[in-house]
Sequence to fold (180 residues):
Amino acid sequence: MAITPTTKLTDLQSVFDKVKRVYYNETPITDLGTLGTVGFELPVIEDSFSFDSGAASISYVKLTTGQKWANYITAGDPDITMQVASVDEEIAGLFMKAVGSAITGTSFTGQGYSTEIKKVTGALILASEDGTKLIVLPNVEMIANPVIESGTPAYFNVQIMPKPNEDGADIILLNEAAGA
Fold:
């Protein structure tokens, strides 16, 4: 018996190879067609972006006879993280609350920050290594904590929680249009 697929394997060759760039927008994205600019590119440490939407948990209603009568599914918890390596005032101010006034009068300038939890909202756009694919998280909440340890640059460990946009999408997968 020969099996003939209606869609060939080569037709499905669309792979997001690796996160190359991460862009942040301060507001959720409702219409990609009208998005002209984004806030800025985040300086994400190489290979630190991790996206796992969370495995579902399946529970069965099983009788004493061993028969499975029904099952119910609970969505998994997402585990999406990245490490942002910058202590620039714009990045620090994004992930921490500025407190007090700016510090000047020495050969250094800066700002004091509170390390209390600050929820950041907006959207993230992930560009692939080859530039032909985008993954858009159109509505996210992010929580970050600063990490300063020996042997590495200071960075923010960022936890990302995707939220549905007004259309109900919490992830958008985009391929470069043919001929673009």
